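#random but structural
TW: two for the price of one
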Amino acid sequence: MPVGSTRSYGSFCPVAQASEVVAQRWVPLILREIMVGYHRFNEIRHALPLISPSVLAQRLKAMEDDGLICRRTGPGGAAYHLTAAGEELRPIVDGLGHWARRWITRDYRADELDPAVLMWSLRRHVVPARFPPGRTVLHFQLEGEPRLRRYWWIVVRPGAEEEVDVCRADPGHPVTLTVTARLRTLVEVLMGDATLAEALREGRLVMEGDRDLARRFETLVELEGSESHLFAGRPMHSGVKA
């Protein structure tokens, strides 16, 4: 790091020096996305919809300079992977999530509830191998959200090059299962603050369509408490359709 950098705490303390590298805004979240299998720029950008492309590019470059990640170029373009130093941060990032779940207990503010963040969080917990062969289309209707943020689709194709897609526009295929709920309800179910059974029983969440998929939904997407284990999601091929 350059002498006099604004990132510097001006201290030889190892905690201070580590914080200069790891505790910058967005860096832990970018690390998390790479750790769960999002390696390309657009994958990370879609998974972190509130970060601007320019800031993401700056952070990735700084993380590369700091030795946390390396950039590899292949047939599909550039991809970012953890170095040995970055890999050693995995239990630390995971531990931050566990610490927050234990000690930061409060209701989610409205500005903390974003549909894109929810959809990409759901996506990382999809288990394609448990879906039937062919194409399954999950349609999510977020009650109370503005029209452009209300409708989302997750398309699952086991064995395909891109097994799971997140779509913000109708992908044009028949819907297999529709899930209707408020954004807050789905976040609570994902985070383990409420169970899917409770939300269904109370009428806060409704499923319509394939009954077998509805019955097995928790095993297909592994909802119950899944976000409390940040790396429970499986690395997978990905795609997003705007």
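TW: number two ↓
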Amino acid sequence: MSQTAPLPSPNPRRWIILLAVLTAGIMGPIDSSVVNVALPTIRQHFATSMSIVSWVAMAYLLVIGSLTLTFGRLGDMIGYRRVELTGIAVFTVASAVCAFAPSIWVLIAFRAVQAVGAGMFMAMSQAIIISVFPPNERGRALGVNGMLIAVGLALGPSLGGLLLTVWGWQAIFTINIPIGILSFMFCWSVVPAPKDLVPQNFDVTGALLGFLFLASGLLVGSFGQDWGWTSYKAIATAAFALAVGAAFIAWERRVPEPMLDLSLFANRVFAAANFAALTNFVSQAAVTFLIPFYLQQVLRLSPAQAGLILTASPLVVLLVAPLSGALSDRLGTRWLAFAGQSIIVGAFLLMLTLTPATRPADVFWRLMLFGLGSGLFQSPNNSAVMGNVPRHRLGIGSSVLATVRNVGMVVGIAVAGSVFAWRSAATLPALGSIRSFMLGIKTAFGVSAVIALAGAMTSLVRKDVRAQAG
């Protein structure tokens, strides 16, 4: 394994480079959520079934979750700039094809191609940021990046609804074309080309095994509830994922230049911070998945009213993430990450007090508290992960974080959905629909609180990470 190169002087254009990376980065989180609001219209346009149209969203999530690690490795090999620019170009062209898709199958296919492009630039964003910022500014820069992800997640549903109403479903794809072109030109002009690349071999076998492992795992996580967790299809897919995952680990341990450098996980801070990130995204997914049902089915709010309330959490993240990132540069990452996860645990406990008579405003401030915890946690935790990655492995470190985010969201929905369905169905005959619904959602939130608590304790027991000069 090659030696870690000494850190260069801070890039004088680093804040401009960060802005360029953000113009591409915002398209990823927006596009992962913007399509959902248009699925009923797309289904009607193509006269297709619900199961088929769901793949418009699922194809994107499965591909981006399965290939991000591979793109991180490519970035370390051929340069972050090249992978970033290729991803923006692929995403933009695929968006144009999606907008003019002649059939549902063409749309699904190019949603997968779209995800290839998005996976490329999302895997590179944090690697580029770390490569141009000195350690004492790392938390602040990653906080701005976290803020942008929150903006994208907050904008997605409302922007999708606006575009759908004014211009039709095609607009949710055509809007990416001018943004993609401008982003490509901006990144082309300011993101620096690598100067210290060392020739390396690409681990094709490892990449294939990694893709099959993540794809099958995400597939069973996404559809296990629909298939039935004890069904032959779910068990066979899970068994295949475990077998391929074991083969992937065995292969990566023996190959000289692995696709995923498993030695990174020997670093206690890197491993612990990634696990904490996983618990954070699992808990986030539980909230974003279940709260809309509570707002609309129990409180009888309209979709527009529910959407407004759901902006509470990402809007607070938007405000808190840059601040927590800057604080982590001075105070270290450990206690901020622990505090953030602890606040999330408290928010879940407060959600256990929700009732069919709860006022929407009381849901809103609980979600704000959840956003406070997430915003406080994410930037310091990401800084802890990336601060423990050798410079020649920044691409794979960034892609591990992106993969953890995607896997965590899928696992969170699977866990929350399964717990909710089991508990509410078991009590429906005795309690009735509303009371069984509330018991199901509270049980799911209780499980999520335990998962978030595990992340908080993991953040507490690892050693601290403070910015160091060079």
